Amino acid sequence: MNRYLSDLSVSLVQATGRSFGISASEYWGNPKPLSKVLALVSGRFESPLVSVNRRSVSQAVLRYRNSRELTDYLDIKYVCIGASEEFSGWCLLEDAGLLDKLLKLAQAVPDRWRLKYFSCLLRSYWSFPRDDEETTPASKIGWAKLRGWLDGQRIYLGGSIQTKPLWFQTLNNHANLLADRPCKRYGQELLTGVSASLNEALENLGVPSDSWLRNEAIDAQMQAGADLKDVGFQSCLSRLVDVATGKTEFRLSRSIATRCLARLVSRYAACGSRPEHMALRDAAIALIGNPWLHRTAWDSYVLDQNGQPDDDAREMVNGWLKVRLIKDFFDLLSEDRSADSRRLNYWLGFEPMIEDMWFALGADAMSDRRKDYAEFRQRANGRLLDLVGATPTINNAFLMHIGEYVVIEFGITGNACFAYRYNDLPARIKRRLNSGTTQALIDIAELKEAGYEVRLLHQGSWEPKFDAAICPLLGFMPSGGGDPRSSRGAVPAKSVQDVRTSAPVYPWRTSFSRLDFERFISRFGLAVDDRVHKGGCLWVRTDAANAQVCESLKNWGFSYRDGKGWWRE
What we know:
By secondary structure, the chain is α+β, with helices and mostly antiparallel strands. The chain has 5 domains: 3-43, no CATH class; 54-163; 191-316, no CATH class; 335-501, no CATH class; 506-568, no CATH class. The chain has helices at residues 3-20, 31-45, 54-67, 73-81, 96-107, 111-127, 137-158, 166-173, 187-191, 196-204, 212-226, 230-244, 254-269, 278-287, 295-301, 311-332, 341-348, 363-367, 371-379, 427-433, 463-474, 493-502, 514-524, 547-555, and strands at 86-87, 90-91, 354-361, 384-388, 396-402, 405-410, 417-421, 441-443, 454-456, 527-530, 538-541, 559-561, 565-568. The strands form 3 sheets. A 7-stranded mixed β-sheet has the order 8-4-3-5-6-7-9, sandwiched between helices. The chain has a 4-stranded antiparallel β-sheet with strand order 10-11-13-12, with no helix packed on it. A two-stranded antiparallel ribbon has the order 1-2. It is elongated, with a radius of gyration of 33 Å.
C-alpha cells in the first residue's frame, strides 16, 4: 500500500476508534466495520429537519384530501410533513377522519419507516401555527391529538431495537415538550436569564425559529414569575414587562404578548402593596386597551384564579390611567406648562368617581411632537377632541363625567369651572364626546353655554366653596386620609351632612362594581376594611339597621356577621 494511504488508514482507525469505539484490529477497508461507522455517523448526526419541496408536499396533501387514500411511502412522508400547514384554505389537522387514517398508516410499518414518519410528524407538531388568530379550533383539536400520538410513539420507539439518532434521545430527555404544559419545566431557569436546557432542546430537535414553542417558553417564564411571592414577583416585573412587550431579542405575537400582560396585571393586582407601575400600566393600555373604553377586552383577557374577569385588576389600571391623565392635564396642558398643583390635588380626590373623561385640545397641544405630548395623546386615545373657537391655541379643556354630571375645567387660568347635567347636554355634544374620533370638533362656546348647574371661580380659598357646591350634586365627598387635598383644611361638617342626605339615590346594580360600591360607601358614610389583597375579605363595618344598605349589600353578595359587619370574598 502507498505510504500516504497507509498513514491515512492509521489516522482513520484512530479517529473512529476514539469517536465510535472501532477497535484498531478492525481494518478500515473491510465492509463490515465501514458499515458500522456509517450507521453510527448517521445515528449521531441525522437531523430531525426534513428538507423537501413545498410544492410536492402541497400536491400530496391535496391528493390525500380528494382521494382519502395513501399507498406510496413518499406520499405518506410528504403528507406527514404538511399535516399542520394550510393548503388551499384547508389544514389536514381539521379533518379528524383523515388524521386518524394518517396516524394509523404511520405506525403500521416497520420501525425504520415508523421513525422516519415520526420525525416528519414531529416537524408538523413544531410548525403548527397554534397562536395565529386565523387558526381554527378544529385544527387545534387535531394538533392536540397529534401531540398525544407522538408521545405514545416516542415511548414505543424508545423500546425498539431500531437504531435511533441523537435527536431522539434529546426528545426523550425533554419529553415534557409533548405534554400539556410543555415549557413549565424551564420557567424558573428562564426567569433567572439562563436557557441552556431549553436551547439544547431547540437546537437538537431542529425546532423552527417561528415555532409556537418559543412563545410557550415566554409564557412559562411569565407564569414562573407570577408564582413567586409578592417581593420576588415585583423585583422581576419590569424585566417581564420588557419581555412581553418585545423589548428583548425575541418578539412575541400580539396575542401571546396580550396574554402575558394580562397575567402580569392580574398577579400585580393581587399583591399586598401595589404602587403604580408605569411600564405595566402603559403596556396594558397599549395591548389590552383603555380599561373604561375596552371593558369587553379586559374581561376576556384579564382573568382571576377562578377564570372570571378580574375586576380588581381592571379597576387598578383604570385608576392609574385616570390619575395619570389628570396629572397630564394640570401639569402638561395647563397654562405655560406650570404645574397647577391646587386644581390637580383637588380633582385627584374625585378620581374613584370619574366614570369617563375627555380632553379637548387646542391646536398647540394637538400638534406638539414632543415626547410628553405624544405619550399623553396615546394614553388619551379615543377621548380626544379638537378645541376650536374664540380661544387661544394654547388653551385646552378637561371634561369629567361624574355621576349625573359633566364637570369642565380649562387649561388657561381665569376660566370658570362649569358643571352640567349629562343628560341635559345637547345631542350634538354627546355625539362628539362618544364618537371616539380624534378630529371631532368642539367649540369652546359650547362648553360655556347657558344651562349649567353651577359655575365656579378659582379665587382665593376656592376649594371649600367647590366642595359645598359640587359634592352634594355628585353624591361624593373625597376622604381626607391620604388625600393631598386634606392639607388645605377640613370641610365644614354641614357640607358633609348635606352630601349624605341630599345625594341622589342610585340604582345599585346586582352586578358588583367598584365604582358603584365607592359611591354607595360615600353616600351612606360607611367604614370599609379591604383585606382582599392579603387573602381576606372585603368588609363593610356597619350593622343591619338600615334596610336600604342591607338590601344593596345582599345584592352584591355580602353576608352579615353579627358584631362585625358585612363581608364578601
